[in-house]
Amino acid sequence: MSEVTVKYFLTFREITGKNQEKIALMSETNLSQFLKLLTKKYGKRFEESVFDHEKKQLNQYVKILVNEKEVGLMDKLKQDDVVSILFPPSGG
Predict the structure, then answer these.
(1) d(CA 1, CA 52)
(2) What is the maximum span of the chain, computed from C-alpha positions, in angstroms?
(3) What's the pLDDT tens digit per position in 35-72?
(4) Number of Cβ within a 10 Å radius of residue 46
(5) Are strands 82-86 and 2-8 parallel, antiparallel or unpaired?
(6) What is the mean predicted confidence (pLDDT) over 4-9?
(7) What's the pTM?
(8) Which region holds residue 37: left if phi is over 0, alpha if psi is between -120 and 50, else beta?
(9) What is the distance between the alpha carbons of residues 88 and 36, in angstroms, rounded to a whole number?
(10) Alpha-carbon span 79 to 28, nearest angstrom
(11) Under DSSP, is residue 13 helix (H, G, I), strand (E, B) or coil?
(12) Looking at the domain covering 2-86, what would its CATH class be?
Protein backbone atom coordinates (compact mmCIF):
# COMPACT_ATOMS: atom_id res chain seq x y z
CA MET A 1 0.00 0.00 0.00
CA SER A 2 1.23 3.51 -0.77
CA GLU A 3 0.02 6.97 0.14
CA VAL A 4 0.01 10.09 -2.02
CA THR A 5 -0.88 13.68 -1.23
CA VAL A 6 -3.32 15.54 -3.44
CA LYS A 7 -3.33 19.34 -3.54
CA TYR A 8 -6.44 21.05 -4.87
CA PHE A 9 -6.45 24.55 -6.34
CA LEU A 10 -9.20 26.99 -7.36
CA THR A 11 -12.32 25.17 -8.62
CA PHE A 12 -11.07 21.84 -7.29
CA ARG A 13 -10.72 23.32 -3.82
CA GLU A 14 -14.35 24.44 -4.05
CA ILE A 15 -15.53 21.03 -5.26
CA THR A 16 -13.69 19.01 -2.62
CA GLY A 17 -13.86 21.51 0.23
CA LYS A 18 -10.19 20.78 0.90
CA ASN A 19 -6.81 22.33 0.21
CA GLN A 20 -5.17 18.91 0.25
CA GLU A 21 -5.59 15.37 1.48
CA LYS A 22 -3.73 12.09 1.72
CA ILE A 23 -5.07 9.14 -0.26
CA ALA A 24 -4.05 5.54 0.40
CA LEU A 25 -3.64 3.40 -2.71
CA MET A 26 -4.16 -0.33 -2.28
CA SER A 27 -2.30 -1.36 -5.43
CA GLU A 28 -0.10 0.04 -8.16
CA THR A 29 -2.10 2.90 -9.65
CA ASN A 30 -1.51 5.13 -12.66
CA LEU A 31 -2.62 8.75 -12.85
CA SER A 32 -5.70 7.95 -14.94
CA GLN A 33 -6.92 5.36 -12.41
CA PHE A 34 -6.22 7.80 -9.60
CA LEU A 35 -8.32 10.53 -11.24
CA LYS A 36 -11.18 8.05 -11.69
CA LEU A 37 -10.91 7.19 -7.98
CA LEU A 38 -11.23 10.90 -7.12
CA THR A 39 -14.18 11.18 -9.52
CA LYS A 40 -15.99 8.41 -7.61
CA LYS A 41 -15.27 10.20 -4.36
CA TYR A 42 -16.25 13.74 -5.45
CA GLY A 43 -18.88 13.12 -8.12
CA LYS A 44 -20.07 14.60 -11.37
CA ARG A 45 -18.84 18.18 -10.91
CA PHE A 46 -15.29 16.93 -10.29
CA GLU A 47 -15.52 14.58 -13.27
CA GLU A 48 -16.82 17.29 -15.61
CA SER A 49 -14.06 19.64 -14.49
CA VAL A 50 -11.27 17.10 -15.07
CA PHE A 51 -12.39 15.19 -18.17
CA ASP A 52 -13.56 16.14 -21.66
CA HIS A 53 -15.76 13.14 -22.45
CA GLU A 54 -16.34 14.06 -26.08
CA LYS A 55 -12.60 13.80 -26.74
CA LYS A 56 -12.06 11.07 -24.12
CA GLN A 57 -9.16 12.92 -22.51
CA LEU A 58 -8.34 15.45 -19.84
CA ASN A 59 -10.04 18.81 -20.07
CA GLN A 60 -7.61 20.99 -22.02
CA TYR A 61 -7.68 23.64 -19.28
CA VAL A 62 -6.72 21.30 -16.43
CA LYS A 63 -3.14 20.83 -15.27
CA ILE A 64 -2.22 17.71 -13.35
CA LEU A 65 1.27 17.75 -11.89
CA VAL A 66 3.07 15.01 -10.00
CA ASN A 67 5.90 16.32 -7.86
CA GLU A 68 5.60 19.64 -9.72
CA LYS A 69 6.13 18.03 -13.16
CA GLU A 70 3.74 17.22 -15.97
CA VAL A 71 3.34 13.47 -16.46
CA GLY A 72 1.26 11.17 -18.64
CA LEU A 73 -1.99 9.55 -17.59
CA MET A 74 -0.39 6.10 -17.70
CA ASP A 75 2.49 7.07 -15.38
CA LYS A 76 2.45 5.15 -12.09
CA LEU A 77 2.11 6.93 -8.77
CA LYS A 78 4.60 6.11 -6.04
CA GLN A 79 4.73 6.42 -2.26
CA ASP A 80 4.85 10.07 -1.12
CA ASP A 81 4.09 11.52 -4.57
CA VAL A 82 2.35 14.90 -4.52
CA VAL A 83 -0.41 15.31 -7.12
CA SER A 84 -1.55 18.88 -7.83
CA ILE A 85 -4.82 19.50 -9.68
CA LEU A 86 -5.42 23.00 -10.99
CA PHE A 87 -6.62 25.29 -13.73
CA PRO A 88 -3.67 27.41 -14.83
CA PRO A 89 -4.12 31.16 -14.39
CA SER A 90 -5.16 33.00 -17.51
CA GLY A 91 -4.04 36.43 -18.59
CA GLY A 92 -6.23 39.18 -19.77
Answers:
(1) 30
(2) 44
(3) 999 999 999 999 999 998 776 789 989 999 999 999 99
(4) 20
(5) parallel
(6) 97
(7) 0.90
(8) alpha
(9) 21
(10) 10
(11) helix
(12) alpha beta
